[in-house]
């Protein structure tokens, strides 16, 4: 009994410490974001004087009006939405097809292909060869350069392979007995059962496309093709934000408002897919 009590007491203190640590970690992430939200609604003088903490000072909407009235910002926003939607769709199609094939243990050369996938996860391609490859494919200065080179992620591929391996073999075998080929089995049987992992992987890909800026800086020269994150980077690194947007409000206020506008869409989508997201991550990472 004494041993059981000691274990129970130790577990209790562990849970208290765990909750305390997670709460502090959450605050460390949340407080800077709240400060940016408050700054985006604050006047320029209040921001420059360091008066803004977690609540707006000299409340104003000029920072957001400056963004709304800027045509270049919304063009970059639409480009980012286009890249995110089309790129994620292509990612899911190619990743799921490859994962379905590699989930079959009787596939010839399966071990070699998986070894190559693991190699790409450990050793990434250098910048210069990547640039030369994109150039040789004729994708330089096109939006395809932001989607095609990252069609399949090794990490996401392994998660999806693990998920497919958990689908009972009886379902696919029954479909084959009924005369279904591999493609029909995949689209009609496997894919409808894979919504949790598709949602999870889709979220990973979508966030990557939405936040991506390095590939755009490396492959794009036409400023009219710059996605939202490149515009945001220009705001952050340039001393005078008025050169990028407008001089209607403070430079710092416009920067903060732009960060909020670039972050909110992902935050709004996540609650609707959270259930599938958590389920897909768990099932795709633990093989039954």
Q: Keywords, please?
A:
globular, 72% helix, MetI-like, mainly alpha, 2 domains, 288 residues, single chain, 0% strand, disordered C terminus, MetI-like fold
What is the residue-mean pLDDT, rounded to a whole number? 81
Structural class: mainly alpha
Q: Provide the CATH architecture of the largest domain.
A: Orthogonal Bundle
CATH structural fold name of the largest domain: MetI-like fold
- Tell me, briefly, the overall form: globular
Number of strands: 0
Calculate the terminal CA-CA distance, rounded to whole Å. 35 Å
Task: Report the portion of residues in β strands.
Answer: under 5%
Largest beta-sheet characterization? none
Along the chain, the helix and strand elements come as HHHHHHHHHHHHH
Taken together, the total number of domains comes to: 2
CATH first level of the largest domain: which class?
Mainly Alpha
The CATH superfamily of the largest domain is identified as: MetI-like
Specify the number of helices: 13
Radius of gyration: 24 Å
